[in-house]
Amino acid sequence: MSNHDYTDLIRKAFQAREKAYAPYSGFMVGAALLTREGEVYLGCNVENAAYSPTNCAERTAFFKAVSEGKRQFSAVAVVGGMKGTAQGDFAYVFPCGVCRQVMAEFCGGDFEIITAKSLEEYKTYALSELLPEAFGPEIQI
Asked: Which helix (H) or strand (E) holds 122?
């Protein structure tokens, strides 16, 4: 979809993944969120024994950015795998439905989502592809 080189953003997502707190599932996820101004906010998944308070890496990155006053974003890179998994052995992971809805709150349909197995193996999608017919702030009830 995009002609951008997202290698640095993916690298940062892998770095964020190392900070994941996933004692229950062992599935560690990292996200690197790129603002339109070129700043990057990192996030990792943070699990909780009660499960529902668990927060995904993507939402962690978004909430950090929004709490710092950022509201315009261009892309997010997402990586994940079981603890101990080496780059290249990862599977492509995608934002959950809740994360996609958070993205729709702040981003247009052209917002890019990069899912990566390694720095060389990645796929890029528009938010509109992963969340068609999104419900968002522009819809008046």
From this structure: strand 122-126
How far apart CA 41 and CA 127 sit, in angstroms, is 18
121 given a catalytic annotation: no
Whether 136 shows a pLDDT value over 70: the answer reads yes
Tell me the C-alpha distance between 25 and 22, whole Å: 6
User: What three-state secondary structure class fits 61?
Assistant: helix
Candidates 39, 47, 58, 133; catalytic one: 58
**How confident is the model over 17-47, as pLDDT tens digits?**
999 999 999 999 999 999 999 999 999 999 9
Nearest Cα residue to 37 out of 69, 9, 72, 2 = 72
How many alpha carbons lie under 13 Å from residue 114 in its C-beta half-sphere?
29
E-only strand ranges, 72-126: 73-82, 112-116, 122-126
